[in-house]
Amino acid sequence: MHKNLLAKSVRLAMISGAAAAALSSPVAFAAEEGAKVERIEVTGSRIKRTDIETSTPVHITTAEDIKLAGFTNVEDIMNNLPQIETSENSLSSNGASGTATLDLRGLGANRTLVLVNGRRLPSGGVYSQSPDVNQIPAALIKRVEVLTGGGSSTYGADAVAGVVNFVMNDEFEGFQVNVGASGYQHDNDNSYIQGLMDDRNFEYPTGSSGIDGKTFNIDVTMGSSFADGKGHATVYATWKKTDELLQGSRDYSSCALNGAGTSCGGSANAVVPNFFFYPVVDGAVDYTNELFWGLNENNGFTPDDGTNRYNYAPVNHFQRPDERYTMGAFVDYEVNENFHPYLEVSYMNDNTNAQIAESGTFFNEEYLLDFNNPLLSDGQKTQLQDAFGIGADDQFVAYIGKRNVEGGPRASLLEHNSFRIVVGADGYINDNWSYDVSYVHGQTSSRAGYVNDFFGPRIGTAIGAIGSDECTDECIPYEVFTYNGVTEEAAGQLTGTAMLSGVTTQVVYNAFVTGEFDFALPTSENPIAAVLGFERREVEFDRLSDEVFEKGLLLGQGGPTPSLNGGYDVNEIFGELSIPLVEDVFLVDSLILELGGRYSDYSTSGKEPTYKVGIDWGVLENWKVRGSYNRAIRAPNVAELFSAQSVGLWSGDDPCTGTTPSASAEACARSGVTAAQYGNISASPAGQYNQFGGGNPEVKPETADTYTVGLVGQPFDSLGFALDYWDIEVTDVIGTPGAQLSLDACINDNLFCDSVNRSAAGSLWIGETGFVNNLTSNLGGRHWQGVDLSANHVTDLFGGTLSTKLIGSYNIKKEVEPVSGLDELTYECSGNISVDCFAQPKWRHNLSISYGMDTWWMATAKWRYYGEVDYTSTNPVDTLVADGIDAQNYFDLIGTFYITDNLSLQAGVNNLLDKEPPMVGNTLASNGNQVSGFYDTLGRYLHASATLKF
């Protein structure tokens, strides 16, 4: 009976993206009569089984798929899957954490559980609460199993969207060296944005970029058995170095578009400074009398006309420079069948720099100045006197916008050191039962140094502000009121450096037994299988900020970065049952009921149950119907619980700004705009506004109910497919309502108006007294629905083999409920893009076709398709996507050449036609006028590698 089940499992495994894995794994070898059938553990269950297909859909990416992708970054490999939205990656600069994370289904990286060989990765570093997949060496991945449909009952919290399990090649035999190189090439011929830059006399590249953004990598792997085959050891070491790529290397990112995408905007924090002036009347600032002036060549003030803007884009990193080393080992030794100890150890060192445009004063602070300030010219004093009616004994306040081009770009220098060790043992208790006991210690130490940013306390001294220290001795006045009056020496004395460091630690104790009982249901010949286990996890997150970060003294940071210290522990018991109900009757080849449960006791939020029910119905020999229900939870992480509350930035739009606001005076009044302020509040040229955010120790776990129903079939020997419907509904979502949503809800619906706190001048970005509250809480819900399709076809053709593989995902629903009970705020993100919605299309697929003649070569062609996306916004401003984003098609070609039995070469081109990414305005852009890292960002990607194996 087991032998028949094995044969069926191999056939069905060929169907849902698991073909290569199934045919190379132990389950693919037919057992001799009477021999013990080897079983494996498949993601989603700890019950070892012969069948790769379970009641919950698991998509498998093989080592060959990874190799053909041509990428060395794990996140780039995984982001090619239609089920994954881009998250933290190497193409982020402003606010970059230096880590790489995975976001399954677009529910957030913190709702995607990442495992290595079925065990957790620790969080990534001082800026991230999610696992950093940079720790994982791409060259050693055997396969990646992506589970949809919860997983909390099997693995614990965080598996809300599902599980991504990296199965490593810990049984490698021989010696292998892989050397690779890659880079990008683009033809800069975007006439639209080049025309906008011509209007502003901005420089930009033209023609071919040549090959830039290069990456070089070396991977070494060795493995061998020892002690007459009782033990095995695999060791590896990798090195990767990536060159920086600036936004100025591409024409479509060489200027910072405005929110509408109709002109090269930029920042009013400009080379030639801009100012907001207000008079002081009877000892109080009169914010109703505002002047927004610039400085002209004659050292006079000129009313702002929107042209004095700094193009901050060219010096920003498009791709960060990065150098990474990883090394590790997998060792196991079978003392006997009852005791099989194993060891996994890994280490990563990663250094990256996130460079963005020069610092400046950013209108960040209010400076109180005397009318007779020596930095002011007589003509400037006359203008202030005429405008405000002030004289020699009076005062006024100024917000200054001066870009520090004299001092050069600012940068965040990020270093991560990750160490992870797994020590454990497994073995047989008897013929039917086995055990597994393990200890996992994962730790990431990281540090960040922010350099060349303006140090706030020094500015007031250098401009002679009242209340600041006097500028004496070596202090050089900051001549912002003189045209081109700032020198490198004066700017150099105003910069500062901030430092922070931290350690994140995760310890996991796990023990379970699994096996089969010696009884079965009367209707079945197969015994009931079970798992029973215990797990304890201890999580600590410690981040220490220096005084500069703690108090937000650097003006280009957008607010403080406080220290963060906290942790929690959880004790859990878990169990599973696999109950064969019946087999070998009409329309029931096999019918198995799968049950699972876990009971968790958190030190922070108390006791929480999770559970699952699944049905695995083999209708006929080559057809299977499967379905499951999972209750999952996500406990709040350390940052959500304990992070300090402070002012930071968000990107978006204030409908009450500008001379002709898009919202009415009545609507704006709800948000605190006075009649005198309406039509006189300046918009942020960079599209950045203040928000007040932070943690909340009272938040409780969020819960999710996940349903899946699927059909797996093999209608022909050469064709197999899997079609799975999934439904994920999350309640008590831990998060924030979103500053943009809160502001829009106040203006449009008179909701959350208590969250909008305008400054005395009505602004939400000048200074830090105006902001939108956006604190962490259990707020609303998420309801996602979709269908996944995967199919494989293999046929002989012209003496060779033609293989076709399709994986696609259709998003039916991505409904966001910001606040429970307020249906009027609920919005739909499936196939939509907005400030609140990521640009995930309804349909996205990858189609690959490979042909080889079992000789010295193989060719592969890929078609990556992203469906169209609509633009939805309560206050639409982006004209570039007024009709949405068109469907995007990318084509790749890869050639593999087997030179000798030991040497193989691979060369390929992704985005063969050099298709540009769709451009968006600054309210929708994540980096470089686009949704960076999701669509092909940098143009044509060329890659080549050589593999030598003995």
Write the layout of secondary structure elements.
Blueprint: H1 2-13, H2 19-24, E1 58-62, H3 63-69, H4 74-78, E2 84-85, E3 103-104, E4 112-116, E5 119-120, E6 123-125, E7 128-131, E8 141-148, H5 152-155, E9 162-168, E10 174-185, E11 187-188, H6 191-200, E12 207-208, E13 212-226, E14 231-242, E15 245-246, E16 274-281, E17 284-285, E18 291-295, E19 301-303, E20 317-319, E21 322-333, E22 340-358, E23 367-370, H7 378-388, E24 395-401, E25 409-428, E26 433-454, H8 456-463, H9 488-492, E27 495-516, E28 529-545, H10 547-551, E29 564-585, E30 588-602, E31 606-620, E32 623-634, H11 638-642, E33 646-651, H12 665-670, E34 688-693, E35 702-716, E36 719-731, E37 734-735, H13 739-749, E38 756-757, E39 771-773, E40 777-778, E41 781-797, E42 800-817, E43 827-828, E44 832-833, E45 843-852, E46 857-866, E47 870-871, E48 888-898, E49 903-910, E50 940-949
Parallel strand pairs: 4-9, 34-39, 44-47
Antiparallel strand pairs: 1-8, 2-3, 4-5, 6-7, 8-9, 10-13, 10-50, 11-12, 13-14, 14-21, 15-20, 16-17, 16-18, 16-24, 18-19, 21-22, 22-25, 23-24, 25-26, 26-27, 27-28, 28-29, 29-30, 30-31, 31-32, 32-35, 33-34, 35-36, 36-41, 37-40, 38-39, 41-42, 42-43, 42-45, 45-46, 46-48, 48-49, 49-50
As a percent range, the share of strand residues is: over 45%
Q: Looking at the chains present, what oligomeric state does this protein adopt?
A: single chain
The chain-level mean pLDDT equals 91
Main beta sheet: strand number and arrangement?
Answer: 22 strands, antiparallel, barrel
* Unreliable stretches covering 5 or more consecutive residues: 1-37
Helix content: 10-25%
Q: Helix/strand-derived class? A: mainly beta
**Alpha-carbon Rg, integer:** 30 Å
